[in-house]
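INFO batch 0412 | record 1 of 1 | parsing
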Amino acid sequence: MDEVTDVGGKQDGRKSGGKRRQVAALPWRGEGEALRILLVSSRETRRWVIPKGWPMKDKTDFQAAATEAYEEAGLVGVIAEQPVGEYEYLKKLKSGAARLVKVDVFPLEVGSELETWPEKGQRTLEWMDPVEAALAVQEPQLRDLIARFAGVALPEEERPAPHLAPTPVRVAFQRLRRRVTALWGRYRR
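INFO prediction complete | emitting tokens
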């Protein structure tokens, strides 16, 4: 695993290359055959993810990732100062629009799990072996990142072909097509 620390300098910027940027913690414990990865369910879609959120003012990115792990899963531990990797996904916004987001992932060696935390009861938590965790997430880049971090190979026969998320342009065109179709139906009556 990477060298870890509890302190560090502030990293700035919410955007990276024109994309929105988030930070995430990759919670882990144990070593070798006993290595486990913690996944949490997302609140809306209930799919398996890792704790993540937006960068926080007056916190470094790795500190913000550790805060997300505490808020979403009640985890306390030692977080790596440098990301182990990144992945991208399409985040659905409240407006209905989708935005491509890059997520920097910081490994978090979990030292303890708290009895209560801010989002307790809003998510499901599950410790999984690395292969199980990698195959449980939907984002192909996150799946590969988990496997790389754990040093495991994913079985090809169990590894689903990656489904590429629609681009923001495609989502906008689909929305426009639905609106035009709805308006066309009103005027044809």
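INFO post-check: The mean pLDDT is 83.
INFO record closed
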